[in-house]
């Protein structure tokens, strides 16, 4: 049991280390940054069954949430505007396979729209941000009840990637902008832009990403009730199961003891 608790503690600690957090007392807002590292394998690498980014999400006040993605890119040898349009399209129409074929999955009650930079919910930038070990990052600002109020995506042109790889990074950071975490951080290829496998260059999300979006945004509005963390619900289940496990261990120990005594 102690080892189980220690393992859970280590997993929780590794999740915290995946991003940086900065709280502003004056505004009562928190800025959180997630990075796509140059080294695709994290020290605390893992594959994730549920890849919510904690419980962060945009507040949904209407049945269909429209997420504006602002084109804030500068001119370079890559057509970033066209690439962003393709990324936005494929967050709305997620293909079964990374070559764009197969069944198309559409998020429920959630629509991404490419817009001008000013006023966008997610602003997407590109620049040479220096040799700081990340290809891309996403900064979100959240309220004290974990609702996202703005998001900034950045791709770091300091590094040399091909067009397909840059599209994975761009797709990856837009995913963070709506509250999706990583499907894996160990370099494994899970056929999604939300993993760290830069070498296979997955340009699109996959069905599992759609499932996460549907949990976050699929039904109802946030006016219908409190903001519930899906991972927190799972943690309660583990606590109950752990408690039952302890009780069973105690009963077995007592049974063995009484049998030995008799």
How would you sum up this structure in a few lines?
The chain is 33% helix and 23% strand.
Topology record:
Elements: H1 2-17, E1 19-24, E2 29-37, E3 57-58, E4 65-71, H2 80-92, E5 94-95, E6 104-105, E7 110-116, E8 122-127, E9 134-142, E10 147-156, H3 163-176, H4 207-217, H5 230-261
Helix pairs in contact: 2-3
Structure write-up:
The protein has helices at 2-17, 80-92, 163-176, 207-217, 230-261, and strands at residues 19-24, 29-37, 57-58, 65-71, 94-95, 104-105, 110-116, 122-127, 134-142, 147-156. The chain has 262 residues and is of the alpha/beta class. The protein has a single domain, classed as Collagenase (Catalytic Domain) (3-Layer(aba) Sandwich), CATH 3.40.390. Strands 1, 2, 3, 4, 7, 8, 9 and 10 form an eight-stranded mixed sheet that branches. A hairpin with a 4-residue loop joins β1 (19-24) and β2 (29-37). α2 packs across α3. The longest helix has 32 residues, at 230-261. The chain starts with a helix and ends with a helix. One of its GO terms (molecular function) is metallopeptidase activity. It comes from marine metagenome. This is Peptidase M10 metallopeptidase domain-containing protein.
